[in-house]
């Protein structure tokens, strides 16, 4: 049953009437309608140019960091995960991240597109406490072409829960970056607790 629930939780929302097109490489997109000058300029602005295919030995997408930012954070304090640091992520199960209750915050994700064109990419997050789902967030990241620099996407502002009940227990989060075709680019778990104040470093 849990596996079925997880599958449904992480199924991207569908847009009525939208059907993903067959995947093409960056080179294939670059060569499409090559004689259309304005289209060529637009594609170039997305990094879609002949030879922009990138290193196909790497995954299409590499998610680098997930960061939580709030104007209420103490000066110099930063809450960020480096997704290559699997030990740090695993450590949050024993030592959850502390998030202050009842504050506005933003989530920011940094990722690289190594090759191919990716479309309809979104971040999905499911939050559970004592095994019961308490929240699900889905944020569209968009469509991108490969480039050397990382992309940064800031999510909409959200507000952390508050109250004694919200502060009790640990929240376990599963985060996933997935596209319209259901291809999973990143999948990781982490934990947090709500408190009256931010944790001091």
Number of helices: 5
Strand content: 35-45%
Strand-pairing-aware structural class: alpha+beta
C-alpha Rg, in Å?
A: 19 Å
Order of helices and strands: HHHEEHEEEEEEHEE
Number of strands: 10
What's the helical proportion of residues?
Answer: 10-25%
Distance between the termini: 40 Å
The parts where pLDDT drops under 50 for at least 5 residues are none
In this structure, how is the largest beta sheet organized? 5 strands, antiparallel
**Global mean pLDDT:** 84
What is the global morphology? elongated
GO molecular function: Rho GDP-dissociation inhibitor activity
Biased composition (Basic and acidic residues): 1-11
Organism: Mycena pura
Subcellular location: Cytoplasm
Any descriptors?
single chain; 5 helices; alpha+beta; Rho_GDI; elongated; 10 strands; about 200 residues; 5-stranded mixed sheet
What does this structure look like?
It contains five helices and ten strands, in the order H-H-H-E-E-H-E-E-E-E-E-E-H-E-E. Helices cover 16% and strands 39% of the residues. The radius of gyration is 19 Å and the shape is elongated. By secondary structure, the protein is of the alpha+beta class.
Quick gist of this model?
Its main location: cytoplasm. With 201 residues, this protein is α+β, with helices and mostly antiparallel strands.
């Amino acid at each position: 049953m849990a596996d079925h629930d997880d599958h449904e939780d992480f199924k991207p929302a569908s847009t009525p009437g939208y059907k993903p097109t067959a995947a093409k490489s960056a080179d294939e997109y670059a060569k499409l309608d090559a004689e259309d000058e304005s289209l060529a300029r637009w594609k170039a602005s997305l990094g879609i140019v002949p030879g922009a295919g990138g290193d196909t030995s790497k995954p299409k997408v590499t998610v680098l960091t997930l960061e939580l930012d709030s104007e209420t954070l103490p000066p110099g304090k930063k809450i960020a995960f480096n997704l290559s640091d699997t030990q740090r992520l695993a450590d949050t199960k024993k030592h959850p991240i502390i998030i202050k209750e009842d504050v506005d915050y933003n989530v920011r994700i940094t990722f690289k597109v190594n090759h191919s064109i990716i479309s309809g990419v979104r971040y999905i997050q499911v939050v559970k406490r004592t095994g019961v789902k308490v929240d699900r967030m889905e944020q569209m990241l968009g469509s991108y072409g490969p480039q050397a620099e990382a992309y940064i996407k800031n999510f909409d502002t959200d507000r952390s829960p508050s109250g004694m009940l919200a502060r009790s227990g640990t929240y376990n989060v599963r985060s996933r970056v997935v596209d319209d075709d259901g291809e999973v680019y990143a999948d990781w778990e982490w934990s947090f607790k709500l408190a009256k104040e931010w944790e001091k470093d």
